[in-house]
C-alpha cells in the first residue's frame, strides 16, 4: 500500500469526526454501581466437586441461642508483703470438717514426752525409726500405717511421712495411740465389776463357716465365751459376768448393746472367728476397738467411714485402747498365731454404740485349713479363753505360747 493511499484514508476519517461533533450533543457519562471484574481462569486447578444438599429430613432447625451469664474473671490478688519471716509450713490437714488434725515433727513429739530422739535406719523417705522408751520399744516405718510396740502390730490412722527433711506424724495418732502406749504400763483402765461377754451371731445368723463346712462361727464363739466365764468365776468371784446369749439364739446388734446398758456393764467384749472366701492362706488373730473421731479406720469393708462422726463409744477412746492392748497382747501370746494387729473400726455397731469401753476379738480364720483344725480343738479354745482372762486381769506376761506344740 502506498503512502498517498494512507493519507487519503486519514483525511476521510477526520472529516467524519468533525461532522459528527458538530451535529450531536455530548451524552452524559454513565458509571455502573458495581464493577464486575472477571478473574483470569487458572486451568491448572482441580475441578470443584459437586455439592449435593442433604435430604430434607436431615436438616435440623438451628436452636435459639441461650443467653449466657457473663464470665467474670477475677483480678489477681495483690502481692502479700511480710514484715516477718514466714513460718515453716507443715503438711495440710487431711480432714478439714472435723476437729483440728495437724501434723507434727516426730522430734517435737519425742521432746514433749521427754524421750530421746529415735535411732533411724534407711534413706529418706524409706526410713525405719526405733524409740526406746521407759514403757517399751516403739518401731515405725515412714509410709506404713502399722507400728510395732514391744513386738505387737498396732494400726495408726495415718502413715508417718517424710516432710521438710524430717519425719512427721499425725497429731491425732500421737494423742490417741502413741501417748497411751507410753502410759500403758503405769495406768489402769476403770476397774471392772460387771462384764458382758458377747458370743457373736447365733440362731439363723451362722456367722462364718469353716473351710470344710463342719463348724460355724456362732457355735465356736459361744463355747469360747462359756470358757471365759468359768475361768473368771474361779479367778474373780467378785465380778459379775453376763453372756448376751447362753444358747443358739439370734440377737440383733442393737439388742446386744441394749443388754449391756440394762446390766450397767463396765466392759463389753465381743468374741468372733474370721473367714475370707477364696483366701485360705489368710490367718491370725485380730483385736478391734472403735475409731476415734478425726481418724480413718483400719477396717472399713463396704461401709462408709466418716471421720467426723462422733459416736457414744468415743467417750472411752483411752479405755478402749488400754483394754484392747492387753487383750491383744495375750491373744497373740496364748494362741501362738500370726499377729494381724490391734485395729480401729467404725462400722461395728457393738463397739460404736456402747456407753462403756468395748473390744472385739477375732480368734482365728476358719477359712484357713490349718488354723480351722486348731480352732476345732477344745484345747485351743481353752487357750483363747485363758488369753482373755489374763488380758482382763492385767497379767503382763501370762503363759507365753511361743513353743506350744500345736502352733506351726
Structure keywords:
alpha/beta, Copper Amine Oxidase, Chain A, domain 1, Aminopeptidase, 6-stranded mixed beta sheet, 5-stranded antiparallel beta sheet, 9 helices
Strand and helix map with partners:
Blueprint: H1 3-23, E1 103-105, H2 106-112, E2 119-123, E3 126-133, E4 136-141, E5 146-149, E6 152-155, E7 161-163, E8 166-170, H3 171-182, E9 194-199, H4 217-235, E10 240-243, H5 253-262, E11 267-274, E12 285-290, H6 317-335, E13 339-345, H7 349-352, E14 358-365, H8 369-376, H9 378-392
Parallel strand pairs: 9-10, 9-11, 11-14, 12-13
Antiparallel strand pairs: 1-8, 2-3, 3-4, 4-5, 5-6, 7-8, 12-14
Task: Kindly summarize this structure in a few lines.
With 408 residues, the chain is of the alpha/beta class. It has nine helices and 14 strands.
How would you characterize the overall build of this protein?
- The protein is an alpha/beta fold and about 400 residues long.
- Among the domains are: about 105-180, 2-Layer Sandwich (Copper Amine Oxidase, Chain A, domain 1); about 195-390, Aminopeptidase.
- It contains nine helices and 14 strands.
- It has helices at about 5-25, 105-110, 170-180, 215-235, 255-260, 315-335, 350, 370-375, 380-390, and strands at about 105, 120-125, 125-135, 135-140, 145-150, 150-155, 160-165, 165-170, 195-200, 240-245, 265-275, 285-290, 340-345, 360-365.
- Helix 3 (about 170-180) crosses helix 6 (about 315-335).
- The protein is globular, with a radius of gyration of 43 Å.
- It starts with a helix and ends in a 16-residue tail after the last helix.
- Residues about 1-5, about 15-90, about 90-100 and about 395-408 have low confidence and may be disordered.
Amino acid at each position: 500500500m502506498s503512502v498517498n493511499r494512507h493519507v487519503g484514508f486519514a483525511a476521510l476519517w477526520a472529516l467524519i469526526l468533525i461532522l459528527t461533533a458538530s451535529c450531536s450533543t455530548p451524552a452524559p457519562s454513565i458509571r455502573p454501581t458495581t464493577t464486575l471484574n472477571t478473574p483470569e481462569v487458572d486451568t491448572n486447578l482441580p475441578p470443584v466437586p459437586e455439592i449435593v444438599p442433604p435430604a430434607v429430613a436431615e436438616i435440623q432447625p438451628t436452636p435459639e441461642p441461650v443467653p449466657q451469664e457473663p464470665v467474670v474473671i477475677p483480678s489477681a490478688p495483690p502481692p502479700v508483703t511480710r514484715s516477718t519471716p514466714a513460718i515453716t509450713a507443715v503438711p495440710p490437714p487431711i480432714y478439714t470438717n472435723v476437729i483440728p488434725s495437724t501434723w507434727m515433727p516426730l522430734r517435737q513429739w519425742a521432746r514433749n514426752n521427754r524421750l530421746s530422739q529415735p535411732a533411724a535406719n534407711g534413706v529418706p523417705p524409706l526410713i525405719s525409726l526405733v524409740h526406746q522408751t521407759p514403757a517399751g520399744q516403739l518401731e515405725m516405718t515412714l509410709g506404713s500405717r502399722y507400728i510395732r510396740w514391744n513386738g505387737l502390730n498396732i494400726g495408726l490412722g495415718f502413715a508417718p511421712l517424710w516432710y521438710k527433711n524430717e519425719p512427721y506424724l499425725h497429731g491425732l495418732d500421737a494423742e490417741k495411740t502413741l501417748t497411751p502406749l507410753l502410759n500403758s504400763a503405769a495406768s489402769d483402765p476403770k476397774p471392772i465389776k460387771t462384764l458382758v461377754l458377747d458370743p457373736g451371731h447365733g440362731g439363723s445368723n451362722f456367722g462364718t463357716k469353716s473351710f470344710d463346712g463342719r463348724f460355724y462361727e456362732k457355735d465356736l464363739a459361744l463355747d469360747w465365751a462359756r470358757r471365759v466365764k468359768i475361768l473368771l468365776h474361779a479367778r474373780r468371784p467378785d465380778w459379775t459376768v453376763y453372756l448376751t446369749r447362753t444358747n443358739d439364739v439370734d440377737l440383733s446388734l442393737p439388742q446386744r448393746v441394749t443388754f449391756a446398758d440394762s446390766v450397767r456393764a463396765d466392759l463389753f467384749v465381743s468374741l468372733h472367728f474370721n473367714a475370707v472366701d477364696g483366701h485360705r492362706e489368710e490367718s491370725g488373730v485380730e483385736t478391734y476397738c472403735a475409731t476415734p473421731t478425726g481418724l480413718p479406720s483400719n477396717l472399713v469393708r463396704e461401709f462408709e467411714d466418716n471421720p467426723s462422726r462422733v459416736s457414744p463409744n468415743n467417750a472411752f477412746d483411752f479405755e478402749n485402747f488400754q483394754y484392747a492392748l492387753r487383750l491383744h497382747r495375750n491373744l497373740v501370746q496364748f494362741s501362738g498365731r500370726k499377729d494381724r494387729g490391734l485395729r480401729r473400726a467404725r462400722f461395728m455397731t457393738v463397739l460404736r454404740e456402747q456407753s462403756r469401753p468395748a473390744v472385739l476379738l477375732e480368734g482365728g480364720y476358719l477359712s484357713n485349713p490349718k488354723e480351722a483344725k486348731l480352732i476345732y480343738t477344745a484345747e485351743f479354745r481353752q487357750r483363747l479363753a485363758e488369753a482373755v482372762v489374763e488380758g482382763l486381769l492385767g497379767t503382763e506376761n501370762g503363759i507365753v505360747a511361743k513353743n506350744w506344740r500345736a502352733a506351726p
